[in-house]
Structure formats: C-alpha cells, structure tokens
Amino acid sequence: MRPSQRISGLYAVTPESSDSHWLGARVKAALAGGASAIQYRSKSDDGQLRAEQAGQLLALCRAYDALLIINDDVELAQRLGADGVHLGREDMPLADARAVLGSGALIGVSCYDSVARAIEAKGGGADYVAFGSFFPSAVKPDAVRAPRELLRDARGALDLPVVAIGGITLHNAHLLIESGADAVAVISALFQVQDTLAAAQAFAALFAARDLSELP
Length: 216
Fold this sequence. Notes:
Blueprint: E1 9-13, H1 20-32, E2 37-40, H2 47-63, E3 67-71, H3 74-80, E4 84-87, H4 94-101, E5 106-112, H5 115-123, E6 128-131, H6 149-157, E7 162-165, H7 173-178, E8 183-186, H8 188-191, H9 196-213
Parallel strand pairs: 1-2, 1-8, 2-3, 3-4, 4-5, 5-6, 6-7, 7-8
C-alpha cells in the first residue's frame, strides 16, 4: 500500500459487470487515458468473481502506477493488498477499518452533503472525503443532492483531498473542479461510452488545464 499518494484527478469507479474481460479492457483504457485511481465497486454475491476481478484490476493499477480502492469490502482490500477502501454510511466504521488495514491504507469516506460528517471523518483518520451527488445520477437516482458551494466550504474546513461524485460528465466536471474538487469520481461517462480512452483523456485534460492556470 502507498499512503504517500493522494487522491487527485480522474477517479474511475467501475460499473457492475460479470464480464471480467470487458471490465479489464475498460479499466485499462481508463488508466491509459490518465485515471489516477480506480475504485472497484461491485455488489455481486459471487465472492470468487469479486476477488478475481479485484485482483485483475490491482495488476492493471500497478502497471500504470495508479491506486486501487475497494468499495465497501475491507476484508477483500486487506486480503488483496489494495491501496485502500472506500466506506459509505452503512459500511464498517472507520475506526474498525483502520484497525484491519493499518496505517498504510488509504481510507475514503462518503460524506454526501455534510461538511460536518467530513470533519468527523477527518478526526477519525480518513485520508479523503467524497461529496455528492452533484447532478442527477442513473447509478443512484435517489442519492442526496449536494450543492457545488459545498466543495468550497469543504476545502476551507479540511486539509484532505475532496472528491466529487454523482452524474459527472465531460460537460459539467469543470464546474466541480472550479469549485474546489481535487478529484472527480466517474462511472457512466467513462465506462458507458464508446471510447473510454478518449473520455479519460478528456477528463484528465481538465485537471491539467487547472494545474496550468494555477502556476505563478
């Protein structure tokens, strides 16, 4: 695990798929296009499939010097030697996850529309926080909506990477980056498109343009 790496840029979140070949090819394209982190997100009851897919994605992330974060499953992250885990409201408590994974793991926490929850997560040892949904999302249509101003508030209150998620596309991602997002978590606009490589390159270019504009 590589705790020295911070979450930033394009944070790709995998869609549900039992087709490991398709998933691996799409993740490889996302990494080649500039994704700095992959979150393996699967709600499948097939533990063997999930372990095989996560292992495949870990090898790809290592080849591209990217981070692999496992959604929800602390035990899988620990067994695999992934870079960390992402926790939602209903998942293992942060303190318990840290006890299992140790100080070397990256642990992210979903904070929805609450800066107070993010401050609590930071106090508990979180390495990054995620807010959203900022836009309507087909993946989570009933998700809590967060205003863009929340990102500025979070940047002012926290010294942690801030991730934006929810309905993010190439047409609206710049609004979140301009509002202070260190990273954007993308699913459909990256994986449910014809050319994942080109989409990843376009998302990565938004961060490159921001970085250039911030140069003295």
